[in-house]
RNA sequence: GUGACCGUAGCUCAGUUUGGUUAGAGCGCCUGGUUGUGGUCCAGGAGGUCGGGGGUUCAAGUCCCCUCGGUCACCCCA
């Protein structure tokens, strides 16, 4: 029996899980305040949803998918990303017009694990469907930016670019292909192999950076309309005081993107996998999946990576009050008292069985409670002895006043 | 898929170079130091297939081979 979690997966326990809980709540709250409703789609889809949506020639589809046949002979795939699934659901459910959806969930890609790259990883994201205006792109970028700041990741830089519309890319691809072909002998074999299949992808190759330094870029070959869209995007970032940098060779690994693409990079985080989020516009995806034309834009944030980038920080406290029941005959009263505290929003706990006072204090300490409230002889006066566990200070407090007392 | 480094107690590691008695430390855990007080302090205790398999040897944690696992980087992407 192999008792290990599978390669590239993690168990999240306290105290690390406290930071997870905090960020999941922040996300839920922030996305709701921006008007995004919760959307939940299956963890697996028919393989073709990703093959067609994400793109046959992408790394993700070519070699990173967890694909399996179920007992009914269907080819299914664990979602490597969530956008294709949400768009599939929008089409299937016959929705029309604008839909703003937020999600949070595990994604799966078969890769060699390393820092910030897991086989099961958690993404937070939004999809803004049915809106072609650049303000939708801007809202999405702002939302992700705000989240990262609230998470505690100061100093975020948003890398932005425009890769144009498919029409722009016909001419550009031709130009790029011939430019790359002229220099094929200088390129890595990986890059050479992509000249025919997916020339745009060559642009973000790390090893070929030197060669690519003066290559033609997509943003310099836009139609009037897409150029205006990009200009308005940059202007909007300025107006929102979002720290950004134009990254002319930023392209995305998923085929469905057009026009706007962006990534979030924390300036002070030096690992190889330092992109904590990214996204862009994908006006063509719905059609690829067999629906009608649907302008859309969205973003995904890598929660695992955000937490790695945050580094080791003192974990937030998880418990406010720990009840110590000094007189076992008061157990029922203690239980009611705990319920009142919990109803008042005070995080409260106590040991389940009958244990010595010493053991109960020890439990309180191990759970990292802020204070202990002792329920014993003072209960007959309606009071509890409250001890601050970090200072050791003790005082008598009227039981009903404890929630308010905690707020001080 | 490619490469480098690393696997000894729950965790962090020493011991491996130069093979040699019952494999160690710190932290953590459990018990005790009498009444209703944790954390600190003192005393005791539990806990190890030295990742696994094979080989060399009188003798292997230590040397050789294979294998599994981990980490980081390439690649890819959140």
Please give the alpha-carbon distance between the first and last residues: 52 Å
In spatial order, strands of the major sheet run 1-5-6-11-10-9-7-8
Beta-strand share of residues: 15-25%
User: How can the largest sheet be summarized?
Assistant: 8 strands, mixed
Give the oligomeric state. Answer: single chain
What can you see in these coordinates?
The protein has 408 residues and is α+β, with helices and mostly antiparallel strands. It folds into two domains: 16-165 and 223-310, 2-Layer Sandwich (BirA Bifunctional Protein, domain 2); 319-406, Anticodon-binding domain (Rossmann fold). The chain has 15 helices and 16 strands. The strands form three sheets. It has an eight-stranded mixed sheet with strand order 1-5-6-11-10-9-7-8, with helices on both faces. It is elongated. The two termini are 52 Å apart. The mean pLDDT is 91. The structure holds one RNA strand of 78 nucleotides.
Q: What is the strand and helix layout of this fold?
A:
Layout lengths: L15 H18 L3 E2 L5 E3 H8 L4 H5 L3 E3 L5 E4 L4 H10 L6 E10 L11 E10 L4 H18 L4 E7 L3 H17 L6 H9 L1 H4 L6 H4 L11 H16 L4 E3 L11 E9 L10 E5 L3 H4 L7 E7 H8 L8 E7 L5 H13 L4 E3 L6 H10 L2 E7 L7 E6 L5 E5 L3 H6 L1
Parallel strand pairs: 1-5, 7-8, 12-13, 12-14
Antiparallel strand pairs: 2-4, 3-4, 5-6, 6-11, 7-9, 9-10, 10-11, 14-15, 15-16
Helix pairs in contact: 1-5, 5-10
The protein binds one RNA strand of 78 nucleotides through helix 3, strand 6, strand 10, strand 11 and helix 12.
């Amino acid at each position: 029996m192999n008792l290990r979690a599978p390669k590239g997966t993690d168990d999240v326990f306290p105290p690390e899980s406290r930071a997870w809980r905090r960020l999941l709540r922040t996300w839920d709250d922030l996305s709701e305040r921006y008007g995004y409703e919760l959307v939940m789609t299956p963890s697996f889809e028919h393989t073709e949803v990703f093959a067609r949506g994400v793109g046959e020639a992408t790394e993700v589809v070519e070699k990173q998918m967890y694909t399996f046949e179920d007992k009914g002979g269907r080819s299914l795939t664990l979602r490597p990303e969530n956008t294709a699934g949400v768009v599939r659901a929008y089409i299937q459910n016959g929705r029309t017009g604008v839909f703003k959806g937020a999600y949070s969930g595990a994604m799966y890609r078969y890769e060699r694990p390393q820092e910030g790259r897991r086989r099961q990883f958690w993404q937070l994201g939004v999809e803004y469907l049915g809106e072609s205006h650049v303000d939708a792109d801007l809202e999405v970028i702002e939302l992700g930016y705000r989240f990262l700041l609230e998470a505690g990741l100061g100093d975020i830089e948003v890398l932005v670019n425009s890769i144009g519309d498919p029409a722009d890319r016909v001419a550009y691809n031709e130009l790029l292909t011939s430019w790359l072909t002229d220099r094929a002998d200088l390129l890595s074999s990986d890059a050479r192999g992509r000249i025919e299949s997916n020339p745009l992808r060559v642009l973000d190759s790390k090893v070929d950076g030197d060669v690519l330094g003066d290559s033609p870029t997509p943003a310099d070959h836009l139609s009037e309309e897409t150029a205006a869209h990009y200009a308005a995007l940059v202007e909007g970032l300025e107006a929102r005081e979002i720290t950004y940098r134009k990254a002319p060779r930023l392209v995305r690994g998923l085929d469905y993107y057009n026009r706007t693409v962006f990534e979030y990079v924390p300036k002070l985080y030096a690992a190889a996998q330092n992109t904590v989020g990214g996204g862009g516009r994908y006006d063509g995806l719905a059609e690829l999946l067999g629906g009608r034309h649907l302008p859309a834009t969205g973003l995904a944030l890598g929660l695992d990576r955000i937490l790695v980038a945050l580094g080791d920080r003192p974990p937030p406290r998880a418990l406010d009050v720990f009840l110590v029941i000094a007189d076992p005959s008061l157990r029922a009263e203690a239980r009611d008292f705990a319920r009142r505290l919990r109803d008042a929003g005070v995080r409260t706990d106590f040991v389940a069985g009958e244990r010595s006072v010493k053991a109960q204090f020890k439990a309180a300490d191990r759970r990292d409670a802020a204070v202990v409230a002792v329920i014993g002889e003072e209960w007959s006066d309606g009071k509890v002895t409250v001890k601050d566990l970090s200072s050791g200070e003790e005082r008598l407090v009227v039981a009903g006043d404890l929630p308010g007392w905690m707020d001080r």
